[in-house]
Amino acid sequence: MERMHAQASDATAPPPHVVVLTSPGAGHVAPVAEFAARLAAHHGVTTTIVTLTNLSSPDNSSALAALPPGVSVATLPEVPLDDLPLDAHIVTRIITAVRRALPHLRDLLRSLLRSPAGVAAFLADMLCPAALAVAEELGVQRHVFYPSSLTSLASLLYTPELARTTAGECSDLPEPVLLPGCAVPMRGADLVEPVQRRADPVYALMVDLGLDYLRADGFIVNTFGDMERDTLAAFGELSDRGVYPPAYAVGPIVRSCSDEAAKHVCMTWLDGQPDGSVLYVCFGSGGALSTRQTAELAAGLEASGQRFLWVVRLPSDKDSSAEQRMNAVMLSSSPEGGGVGVAMRVRDGAVVVPREEVAAVARELMVGEEGAAARRKVQELRAAAEKAAAPDGPARRALAGVVDAWKCARR
């Protein structure tokens, strides 16, 4: 009778409600919005997306413009940042804004905990793990929502140890960095840009970021088995030993194509091209190329004779950083490890990749014999991604396991 009563109570109980804090920027807000939509559609979870007033942009608003029922938005009040130097790193600004907004977040969580829906779990995005302390203080289950690769997460988790055991700049490290929980060795120069200069205040913040991650009960990561098979296995072994919280591969999480986007002239043009004939060129939402590199890239793509679609951002000679360093390492690893085995890097001592090299790599990738393996791997990854995201796929099952833990926490 007691079991029957518990089952009846669960059937009439409101769905679990989670709170997700996102840092500003389209590369953070958009994945959080898509993730919340999936929680609602596939698992019956309601979500409050919490944004910062500081550093928000029109891109933030557009990503949150068409949320489904069950997903709402709350915005934390603006906090002062005028004491930071004008040239402060954008990550410094974001992490500082998160830290200074924690009292407002605490008030919001307390209010939501008193509501009928309550709060089953709190999620912080990749630049907001300082907020996990507030959820821990309030006794709320907590996770990190990580919209990038597990390789990238492993590198940030290792930042405190790297800072403790090395001296000088990452780019000067004589040997490849072997990250615990990561199957891909990498050069120090391949680590994320905010850890490349020890003298910059952002370096210390990144060390703290790596420590704050350990407050999580788990990591919800935008990856899937065939993309990072070896890294998922290595990270899982460390989690089993209690070194790191467990990682749940719930990807790929990509935005659905809206009706307006489908009508864009680029989509119309793409529909008229032969299958597999267009090279897509994009350097992330936060990276920028120098004026000279932009010109060399444009000339090289044209000289390659290949069809291409390029997402062009305004060049910047002040801050010309390839923010996608870790993703580049993962994607250019050997096909056996999940990558495609192709990379193009600025050579030691050089300033830019010249147009001749751009053209040669573009041709090889699209029509060359050596590029054939990369093209086959891309097709395999596409099929694997579709399988992972299927209703009975591993991504859906992994997230269902996390949701079950949230439901238990609510009871």
Overview of this protein structure:
With 411 residues, the chain is of the alpha/beta class. 45% of the residues lie in helices and 10% in strands. It contains 17 helices and 9 strands. It has helices at 2-12, 26-43, 58-63, 90-100, 102-113, 132-137, 150-157, 159-165, 201-212, 229-240, 259-262, 265-271, 291-304, 325-331, 355-367, 370-388, 394-410, and strands spanning 17-21, 46-52, 71-76, 121-125, 141-146, 219-221, 247-249, 278-281, 307-310. Strands 3-2-1-4-5-6-7 form a 7-stranded parallel β-sheet, with helices on both faces. Helix 13 packs across helix 15 (355-367) and helix 15 crosses helix 16. The protein is globular. The chain starts with a helix and ends with a helix.
